[in-house]
């Protein structure tokens, strides 16, 4: 009778340990998935920021060029006014 109880206890303990190990593995897998998703999102956001910055710099250069052209045209108009 005592032997039967000990055997049952040992079996239950092994089952519980297996369930716990399964749980730990599921948690590790879930954490790895979350980490991978996080890294992917960070990379995506970093690329988006770099692209936005590049487009901004291009637009800024275009604006500077247009401003310079405007100033040159304005200078030409002023010179023409002085000539007449």
Question: What does this protein look like?
Answer:
This protein is an all-alpha fold. 98% of the residues lie in helices and 0% in strands. The protein has 1 helix and no strands. The protein has one helix at 2-83. The longest helix has 82 residues, at 2-83. It is rod-shaped. The N and C termini lie far apart (123 Å). 0% of the residues are buried. The mean pLDDT is 93.
Strand content: under 5%
Major beta-sheet overview: none
Instruction: Report the uncertain regions.
Output: none
In whole angstroms, how far apart are the ends?
Answer: 123 Å
Mean pLDDT: 93
Shape: rod-shaped
Number of helices: 1
Question: Structural class of the secondary elements?
Answer: mainly alpha
Roughly what percent helix?
Answer: over 70%
H/E topology pattern: H
Radius of gyration: 36 Å
Record field, number of beta strands: 0
Question: How is this fold's topology laid out?
Answer:
Layout: H1 2-83
Brief account:
By secondary structure, the protein is mostly helical. The chain is built from one helix and no strands.
Fill in the keyword field for this structure.
84 residues, mainly alpha, 1 helix, 0% strand, rod-shaped
